[in-house]
Design goal:
Main location: membrane
Radius of gyration: 24 Å
Number of strands: 4
Order of helices and strands: HHHHHHHHHEHEEHE
Strand order of the largest sheet: 2-3-1-4
Oligomer: single chain
Subcellular location: Cell membrane
Pfam families: DUF2179, YitT_membrane
Number of domains: 2
InterPro entries: DUF2179 (IPR019264), N-reg_PII/ATP_PRibTrfase_C (IPR015867), UPF0750_membrane (IPR051461), YitT (IPR003740)
Largest sheet: 4 strands, antiparallel
Domain DUF2179: 231-287
Strand content: 5-15%
Length: 298
Amino acid sequence: MITSRQNIDWEAVFDPFSILYIVAGVFCAAVALEAFMLPNKFLDGGVTGIAIVLNLRFGINLYVLLVAINLPFLWLGWKKIGKTFAVQSTFSVFLLIIILEILPIEKAVTNDHVLSALFGGILMGLGIGLIIRGGGLIDGFEVITEFVEKNSPLSASEITIFLNSLIMLFAAIFFGIEPAMYSILTYFTAIKMTDYVVEGFEEYTALTIISREHDKVKELIVKEFGKAISVYKGERGYLPETFHIKHPCDIIMTVVTRLEVHRMKEVIQQIDPKAFFYVQTIKEVKGGVIKRVGKKHS
């Protein structure tokens, strides 16, 4: 069902899978904070990072900070992204506060700083990813990043890096260089884990092949690997020493997972050792045939 961003889609808000994702994600994030990050003064990026800095430096209640700092971003999300998103994000933030309050963890799981940074980042990234899949957020920085990107020449990545660099700078000033370095490790671990959860471990890749044996390559990809293909009419040749020589050919493009790219390239090179490939990572695929439906190539 398509709904306007100006209306709350209560069916989406109360969807059992969305609620399950959000609850599981908030629990993972709370464990990351209580068991690994807060005891070692390690930061995540965004609102959570700002709240931790102010809590540890000035003793302001962490729960008050999480709500107070997130509120402007939630309001911006309500206005600019959608009311359903804002409701789910507000639920996520308050649920995080409740779980942090009742979670029976009083000290760090380990005193090893590397393990704390890695596992804190993994759990935080897992939590954020699950919450995003559920339709919400616990960090309003994602909202302002999207808003600023639309009104500036900077990309979302550049804005995120700039804002979080400021947070890590304050961490270095207040807590020392070493905690700041571990915080950077925590942050980048969380980023990668979030990407895996949101986009999936089988990230899709566009594989383009230019080959003199294009008919055999097309048959191999479709019949043996069970993949759909798109074909562009083009020309190959135009080498520096023989620029005047060219040949018509079919340029073949297919969408595969990154786990399948190497095996497919190897088999195609058995048909044409001089085949030309280029690979592009793509963020999202919809429609068409993207799952393998044919027999597995041996």
